[in-house]
Amino acid sequence: MAEGMVLEVLTPERSVLREEVRSVVVPGACGYLGVLRRHAPMVVKLRAGVVKYRPAGREAGGPFERLAVSGGFLEVSQDRVLVLAPAAELAKDIDVMRARAARDRARARLRSREAGIDTARAQAALERALARLLAARE
Amino acid sequence: MAMLDIRRRIRAVTSIQQVTRAMELVAATKLRRAQDRVFAARPYALKLREVLSRLAQGRTGAPHPLLRPRPVQRRAVAFVTGDRGLCGSYNTNVIKRVQAELDALAAAGGPELALIPIGRRGREHFRRRGHDFLEEFLGLGEEPGFHQARGIARVLIRLYQEGRVDEVRFVFTEFVSALTQRPGELVLLPVAPPEGGRPSFLDYIYEPSPEAVLEALVPAYVEVQVFLILLESKASEHGARMTAMGNATDNAEEMIQDLTLEYNRERQASITKEISEIVRGAEALK
């Protein structure tokens, strides 16, 4: 591991990604944060958002790859970066139409203000949909 | 006439055998898929467990509410069965376990039990016997997804937090191998901080804080445990069904052989009879 570290993204249903990377940016609960090689061991609570990474071998200023996560945790230990998320999708796998539909549904539910709607859940659904749209954006 | 009857039965058994063989093959395919899903879920679960054990160890102060045991006055028993039968003793084993708990309570006393069936078979069984359920979860389908496990976990956590139950216990079927499944139990809530994680010499930074990470980690751990329980149960169900249908196919084969033998014997007898009649008739004409 001369150059980088290994980024691994796990969900309960499958392993989404395992790749050597140069740098990673994750949506921490208190804002985005970046991880480079030899970062101190750390565990971070994540919120729904976009994980960005530069594959090993890509120049420092090069473009990021993206994936959407619905929350979860990040663990950094010994040049291994592990993202544990309830759900995660690579940008290329995201169904933009479905994400848009989910976003509109969540917005409509938040606007309706009817009794019996779970505001926190609708808000979370909206954030997940927005994260997926953001990750899919070229 | 006996021969016709035997033929009819051979035909019937053959068509049953075709069905059981098909079910065996279908179960085998589904078993493979279910097994893959169990294996896919394990790394995530193990990692969460490791982080949790690290975080729960060596910490003082007030523990997370879901980690704190309290005197048990009311215990929820969530039990996982299939929606369908024809899977050997898969459903009955779980039902027996739950019944044993009910019997033990009736005999020796103890905390009140609240049943939570997951899956139609177990629910029908206890409903016919006049039991009420605190909650029920049905129709999880052939491949329970994580979001379903999550939904169940959240309901159970809420029951626990609101103090409606003081413990949540799971009765399910552990998947040992395709041929072996055994009923198992697990206390889901309060969460027993996992032990045995190798002590780490690394000094971790927790963001935003150890408390905030723990706060989110404990429910996530409960959710993945429920997910694993559902997956293992599903794999066990397919395994049990495969074995049961395999046995049924073998039994049908044996039956067909016996019937065929009997049929041939009858046929032989009737031919012999006919010949002797002809011979006798010819003799009489001489």
Number of helices of chain B: 5
The ordered string of helix (H) and strand (E) elements of chain B is HEHEHHEEEH
Overall geometry of chain A comes to: elongated
The amount of beta strand of chain A, in percent, is: 35-45%
The helix-and-strand class of chain B reads alpha/beta
Structure description:
The complex is a heterodimer of chains A (138) and B (286). Chain A is an alpha+beta fold and 138 residues long. In chain A, strands 1, 2, 3, 4, 5, 6, 7, 8 and 9 form a 9-stranded mixed beta sheet that branches. Chain A has helices at 96-112, 119-136, and strands at 5-10, 15-28, 31-36, 42-46, 49-55, 65-69, 72-77, 80-84, 88-90. The model of chain A has no long low-confidence stretch (mean pLDDT 88). Chain A contains 2 helices and 9 strands; from the N terminus they run βββββββββαα. Chain A folds into 2 domains: 5-91, F0F1 ATP synthase delta/epsilon subunit, N-terminal (ATP Synthase, domain 1), CATH 2.60.15; 94-136, Single alpha-helices involved in coiled-coils or other helix-helix interfaces, CATH 1.20.5.440. Chain B has 286 residues and is of the alpha/beta class. The longest helix of chain B has 76 residues, at 210-285. In chain B, helix 1 runs antiparallel to helix 5 and helix 4 packs across helix 5 (210-285). Chain B folds into 2 domains: 2-19 and 247-285, ATP synthase, gamma subunit, helix hairpin domain (Helix Hairpins), CATH 1.10.287; 25-198 and 205-243, Pyruvate Kinase, Chain: A, domain 1, CATH 3.40.1380. The mean pLDDT of chain B is 90. Chain B is elongated and about 115 Å long. Chain B is built from 5 helices and 5 strands; from the N terminus they run H-E-H-E-H-H-E-E-E-H. A 4-stranded mixed beta sheet of chain B has the order 2-1-3-4, with helices on both faces. The A-B interface holds A 10-15, 28-30, 33, 40-45, 72-73, 75, 77-78, 82, 84, 86-87 and B 37, 40-41, 43-45, 47-48, 51, 55, 145-147, 149-150, 200, 202-208, 212-213, 216-217, 220, 223-224, 227. Strand 4 (42-46) of chain A pairs parallel with strand 5 of chain B.
